[in-house]
Design brief:
The protein is an alpha/beta fold and 341 residues long. It has one domain: TIM Barrel, CATH 3.20.20. The protein has an 8-stranded parallel barrel, surrounded by 4 helices.
Length: 341
């Protein structure tokens, strides 16, 4: 009699369940050692952070989704990371039909809208856990930088994170749970959150994130990925190489080095969701214009000026014109795709 692996058995049982209930079969996503697996096959995240806010607005909108997905497919992107749930099945369906997967992020306090504090995040999980587009669930985004949100005790966040991850496991055995941590988690974070399956890390170490992979390998055997990394296309100072002002070349050069180092370390790192897809005009001033400035925690490592000009991070601009960094991403991701075939 043929013996099935645990992953294969779980996949078979899930398939039978959804056949009986008239639903569609979801992909079973799991972890093994340092790898993320989709239906038992290692999955490399060639991703992008995606928060599409139109010019003149401060609200996310998917009205431009079809054009955006065409650009993502052209660039070889296979994963979208969003910071809050997408509660529109048609949007999830279109992303899935384009061949991409989504990392769904949950915030701690979103006024009761699918957030961790109210517990309503689990309603979203149970609504969409059978959708093929889901890669994994992600709780929080660099909350370790904000103990003031948790009565000045970051342990309150870690406890909430671990409990929420446990609740997801009880409700959805087919997808791992991640968190997006600001930089390398310390021993307190790791020991407090054993239910976290995948550690995302927002890493801004100039154009050289390479050391974080060896650092991670000494403290954990779980999968990790870079949940944010990248550079903006505005220089607040001039250097011997890059001029002050809008500078796509600086962004492209930094992006190339970051991606190269990331994917050289596939034995430890499961990939990256580069920050970000499109410029975001709502972050630093008038929502109708592209302004310099903005603020982000721990941002002194932003290449090549140590200044996170928050409205200039896209690999395309607000009108979806490709920047030089787009071509860097396309070259890197499509080459990786060819190597995997």
């Amino acid at each position: 009699m043929m013996k099935l692996t645990l992953t294969a058995t779980l996949f078979l049982l899930t398939s039978i369940l959804f056949s009986c209930t008239g639903g569609s079969t979801t992909d079973v996503v799991s972890t093994s050692g340092r790898q993320v697996l989709v239906d038992g096959t290692p999955y490399l995240i060639k991703g992008i952070c995606y928060h599409p806010v139109p010019k003149g607005s401060d609200k996310r909108s998917f009205n431009n989704l079809t054009e955006d997905l065409a650009l993502m497919v052209e660039a070889g992107i296979n994963t979208i990371r969003v910071y809050s749930p997408i509660d529109e099945k048609a949007v999830l369906d279109e992303i899935s039909e384009a061949g991409l997967k989504v990392i769904i992020g949950f915030g701690y306090n979103q006024g009761g809208y699918y957030d961790i504090l109210s517990g309503t995040f689990i309603d979203y999980v149970n609504t969409y856990k059978n959708h093929k587009v889901i890669l994994f669930w992600e709780l929080g985004n660099e909350y370790n930088y904000h103990p003031e949100w948790f009565d000045d005790d970051i342990q309150n966040w870690y406890s909430a994170l671990n409990n929420a991850a446990d609740k997801i496991h009880l409700n959805d055995p087919s997808h791992p749970v991640a968190t997006a941590h600001g930089e390398l988690p310390n021993s307190i974070a790791l020991s407090s959150c054993p239910n976290v399956d995948v550690w995302g890390m927002n890493v801004y170490r100039w154009d050289n994130p390479g050391e974080i992979f060896s650092q991670w390998s000494t403290i954990s055997s779980k999968p990790m990925y870079l949940s944010e990394a990248g550079a903006d296309s505005y220089m607040t100072i001039s250097t011997t190489i890059y001029e002050i002002g809008e500078n796509e070349k600086a962004q492209a050069d930094a992006t190339a080095k970051i991606l190269d180092l990331t994917f050289r370390n596939q034995g430890i790192c499961s990939g990256v969701t580069l920050f970000a897809f499109s410029d975001e005009l709502w972050k630093a001033g008038n929502n109708d214009t592209q302004d310099i400035g903005g603020w982000a925690p721990k941002s002194s490592g932003v290449p090549y000026d140590g200044a996170p000009n928050e409205e200039y991070w896209g690999i395309v601009d607000i009108d979806r014109n490709k920047k030089m960094a787009f071509e860097v991403v396309k070259e890197t991701y499509t080459k990786l795709q060819q190597e995997q075939q």
